[in-house]
């Protein structure tokens, strides 16, 4: 590595960091980065398509008059934009073909792109990003192609977005791309809060209950079945339903007035990690569905997601019942305001009521929680966790005193012959259990309560050179475990982040970072669970961790990540070299790398964050040749007793794959 290469690395930091942002909001994603990054295509050269902003005040007045049913956040602005009439083409030296266009609509909080013609050849990819490449969504490949050859993308933050189509040499075929609508976001859908709802006069004085508060502890499977939908500029909720073949078909049950079309985006597991605390994942999305049947009589709608739901989303296909008996306990889950998942419950269950047609709905009078706009379509569950209906209407958005009405599933099932989809086995059940792909024989709950007796290791440090850290839980009753959560966030099924070798052992893989404090590991079997707290401590000696270090590989398109651990407020000097020959500066430091200082470079100095226990550096390595081996080491100056020479950390090495 030469000194000028180090300077170039620093100069490309913003662009390379953007490449990692591809895990933000998206449809089904795959590896890849836009040519604007790896081919340095200038964003200012992309021609702009101006979209006239709608009359926002008129739209808001319409929303109020319609009772926010459903909760609309965006106006659908018609477009007719195709590759032969707009944008700019580039052909790169290696033969890669690029088509790009920019959409700009002043004042929009976000921009949604809905294509009325969307077919990608196998191997082609598309991306969305802003002018500075600070936010990048993608890569989206042919897996997102839909039977109707249409697609709606998740909202892109801000009032402009650049769309890039990329076709590398060897990819056969021609894309079909026609932008039919721009969704102009006038309510800031990415940041709708309870406070904003109250500003609109909705739910003032009401207390939303986070789904991961104690009242939701018994309903982990139902959380995984409840999803948010986005379609036609409107937000709603819905639930996955199982069928009698237990075959993971993506049947979705929601409210008819939500009006979801084939261009609907479904978001999974959008919930905070704790009770009103923590973050909520935004990257678990699938787009495209088939509208199978609907009815205004019971305000019910039935869809089928076109693509297979990724196993990493940990979906649960909920059970349902056609019984006409009143439930003795009832609860609802959904996404009020399009935000994170909430719950409300009625200890007295639900009663039949008339909403248009006689006895067409279940009526509930909440003991805690309520159903605000955006909750439409959210499922009503009974005491067994089985679906009874979907949220239709309320008497008021204020509380206490709100009564919510849910269109009845049993009526809809009979009137619209849902058996043709939900009962392919022809068993004619009154009730049918849910299906958990993680526990195919487990049904909707029950089983043996898992019990954690011990863990190894008993503590972990904030920075671990051997990351990811493996935690082994020993105990009993693990055979039926369906999922594992860390700080309330479900671990992924692929690549597997937990395994169950036997009834007495679970092995959990924890990815960095590890903030000082603790991590709570919760193992779940249906409505049963056990949890253990793992303390996370400061590093007692200077320690660094290079993510994807040897024997893994570094990818030059993405910045490498280095974590540095020590005591709070210590100052860490991060060094890098391509040589493992030691370097010594008498009285200052003695490093294990750098070839007698001739091949030693200072990345920067960093203060150890007392709140996390580490400092982190992201270093772009674009342009480094394949096979380049980098060595990192840190010298640390104590904040309590500053003295020289510096205390040196371990050495971490990594090899550039491509």
UniProtKB/TrEMBL annotation:
Keywords, in A-Z order: Hydrolase, Protease, Signal
InterPro entries assigned to the protein according to its UniProt record, in alphabetical order: Peptidase_S1_PA, Peptidase_S1_PA_chymotrypsin
E.C. code: 3.4.21.50
Region Disordered, residue ranges: 434-453
SUPFAM superfamilies registered for this protein in UniProt: Trypsin-like serine proteases
GO terms, molecular function: peptidase activity
Signal peptide interval: 1-26
Protein name: Protease 1
Species whose genome carries this gene: Engelhardtia mirabilis
